[in-house]
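[Protein data]
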Amino acid sequence: MAVALANKGVRATFSYAGRVSAPRMQPIAQRVGGFGGVDGLAEYLIHHSISHVIDATHPFAAQMSRNAVGACARTGIPLLALTRPPWRPRDGDDWQHVADITAAVTALSGAKKRVMLALGRLQINRFAAQPQHHYVLRMIDAPKARPTLPQHSVIVARGPFTVPQDTALMREHAIELVVCKNAGGVGAEAKLQAARTLGIPVVMIDRPSLPKRSTVATVRGVFDWIARV
C-alpha cells in the first residue's frame, strides 16, 4: 500500500505501532507509536488535515481498528479498512477453531506436546498455564525478558517464510501442534501448508469482532475508494 501511494505521488503517512525494534522503512512519511485512544487519533487527524484514513492494521489489532472507527465517526473523515481475507481450511487440514487466546490456552489441556506458538511475543506467557508442553517460539526480535514458559525454544527470524522453510523447521523441532491467529494473506500462510503436508493439527484463533466499516482486500480497491470519496 505504501509503495503504491508513493508511486502515485499521494501524500500519506504510515503509522507503526512500535511493536518491533526496527520496523521496515517505507517510501512515504512514517511515524511510530500510539495516538492516545480515540481522542488522540481524532486530534491528530484534524491537526494534520487528514482527508482519508486507511486502516491496514493487523486483523488482530482490534483496539486500533476500533479507535479508527470512533475517531473517523467523530471527525467525519472517511475510513476504509484494507484487510487480508481470512484463511479457510482446505482438504487435509486439521483445525480446531477457538475464539481467543484464553480459549487457545484451554485447548492445550492434555498430554505434553511440542507446540509451535506462531503468535508474536505479547501473549505467549499466558501459555504458562499449560506448563507440560515444550513451546517453540518464532519472533521478529529476541525477547528482552526471558519468557515464563518453563520449556521453550526461541527462534529469531523475520518472514515471510517459504513452505520448505516451515516444513524443515517443524521437522527439526518435532512439532506436534501449531497455534496461530487467523491473520490471512500469503506472507504467513506457509506454516499452514507445512502443517497440512506433515499432518500436524492447528489451533486456529478466529478474528475478533469489530464495528461495521467499509472493507476491501486489495490495493486497487483502496484507490477506487479514494477516487470516489
User: Anything to note?
Assistant: The longest strand covers residues 134-139.
